[in-house]
């Protein structure tokens, strides 16, 4: 399908900061593995460096792998930042919109997400859990379903808002796009969804509150980010914009409250593990989307939600945690996680 194509960036259009060039920075040392983690020059320990030279290269490689494995345990998504086949994409050149991707392939994606990953107490052929039956689930199971439903609703709303109204013509070579009220009503009205459509829209707001809470919880960390790309003016504007956003988020009184989730006993820890594994499965299923542009935005929003869950439930952004040089490792977010979280809440 012609509208499924994703336009990748040419090498000359990729900011130097995204390529890993930090030679223009004079006030900070940057972690080459994670350029968003600033390093104080005094963090370098000469004695520790000397001791490390006695460790064999094989053991050092193993330590790096162990460290990466430990970090990955906090992730709710499978991250592929080091994929050699990955390309840089300008999201402004590839807007989220209806591409014509539909039918059995698209339905199979969401059917797998709901049926294979959402927690259920009874077997049914209906992938959606009726809102009247959600009370049969525990809090954590309800949160998972509402998060997936809200993610689905977000994607559907944007497809209706940017719908292909007419194919390419001489006057509209790229097609005509715009609001499709009929399509929106078909996907969300009570009459066409057996009364569930309005609940799905409420689940969209639920995800919005959840991601707002994640931004608020990680605010101190995000305010210290450099957001370095190599364009000094844009980097400065980005830092100011993020601080303005976080200021608004802090003043919003009704964030999602995660404190009562996964609390108590060993059973809660088991449920937390299952919750995480189920969401990772969702992120993997998004790789099976047959339309590249749909996959791009589906994976971006899924990773944004997964990043929010990581912030909320890893324990490393809790109020008792301190952002100090010795604890920077605890607060590590990859660039793609920050980008996906901000874009997801923007959706």
Task: Give the arrangement of secondary structure elements.
Elements (H helix, E strand, L loop, with lengths): L28 E2 L7 E2 L6 H7 L4 H16 L31 H14 L21 H23 L1 E4 L9 E3 L2 H8 L8 H21 L1 H5 L8 H19 L15 H20 L6 H22 L21 H12 L1
Antiparallel strand pairs: 1-2, 3-4
Helix pairs in contact: 3-9, 4-5, 4-6, 6-10, 9-10, 10-11
Salient structural properties:
347 residues, mainly alpha, two-stranded antiparallel ribbon, 11 helices, globular, signal
Verbal overview:
This protein is mainly alpha-helical and about 350 residues long. The protein has one domain. It has helices spanning about 45-50, 55-70, 105-115, 140-160, 180-190, 195-215, 220-225, 230-250, 265-285, 290-315, 335-345, and strands spanning about 30, 40, 165, 175-180. The protein has a two-stranded antiparallel ribbon with strand order 1-2. About 20% of the residues are buried.
Major β-sheet profile: 2 strands, antiparallel
Shape: globular
In terms of structural class, how would the helical and strand content be classed? mainly alpha
Q: Strands across the major sheet, in which order? A: 1-2
Number of strands: 4
Distance linking N and C termini: 24 Å
* Unreliable parts: 24-51, 323-329
GO molecular function, one term: thiol oxidase activity
Keywords: Disulfide bond, Electron transport, Endoplasmic reticulum, FAD, Flavoprotein, Glycoprotein, Membrane, Oxidoreductase, Redox-active center, Signal, Transport
Family: Belongs to the EROs family.
Active site: 291, 294
């Amino acid at each position: 399908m012609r509208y499924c194509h994703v336009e990748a960036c040419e090498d000359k259009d990729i900011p130097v900061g995204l390529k890993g060039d930090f030679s223009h920075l004079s006030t900070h040392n940057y972690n080459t593995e994670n350029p968003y983690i600033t390093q104080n020059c005094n963090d370098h320990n000469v004695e520790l460096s000397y001791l490390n030279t006695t460790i064999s290269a094989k053991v050092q490689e193993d330590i790096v792998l162990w460290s990466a494995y430990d970090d990955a345990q906090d992730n709710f998504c499978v991250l592929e930042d080091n994929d050699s086949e990955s390309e840089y994409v300008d999201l402004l050149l590839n807007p989220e919109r209806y591409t014509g991707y539909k039918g059995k392939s698209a339905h199979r994606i969401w059917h797998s997400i709901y049926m294979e990953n959402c927690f259920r107490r009874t077997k049914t052929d209906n992938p959606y859990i009726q809102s009247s039956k959600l009370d049969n689930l525990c809090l954590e199971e309800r949160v998972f379903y509402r998060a997936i439903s809200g993610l689905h609703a977000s994607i559907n709303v944007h497809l209706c808002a940017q719908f292909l109204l007419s194919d390419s013509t001489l006057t509209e070579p790229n097609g005509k796009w715009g609001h499709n009220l009929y399509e929106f009503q078909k996907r969300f009205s009570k009459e066409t969804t057996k009364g569930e459509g309005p609940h799905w829209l409420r689940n969209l707001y639920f995800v919005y509150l959840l991601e707002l809470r994640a931004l608020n919880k990680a605010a101190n960390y995000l305010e210290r980010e450099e957001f370095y790309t190599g364009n000094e003016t844009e980097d400065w504007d980005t830092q100011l914009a993020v601080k303005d956003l976080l200021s608004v988020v802090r003043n919003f009184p009704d964030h999602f409250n995660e404190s009562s989730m996964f609390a108590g006993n060993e059973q809660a820890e088991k449920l937390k593990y299952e919750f995480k594994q189920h969401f990772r499965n969702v992120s993997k299923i998004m790789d099976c989307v047959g339309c590249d542009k749909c996959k791009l935005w589906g994976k971006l929003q899924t990773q944004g939600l997964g990043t929010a869950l990581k912030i909320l439930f890893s324990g490393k952004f809790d109020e008792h945690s301190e952002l100090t040089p010795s604890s920077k490792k605890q607060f590590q977010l990859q660039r793609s996680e920050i980008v996906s979280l901000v874009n997801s809440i923007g959706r």
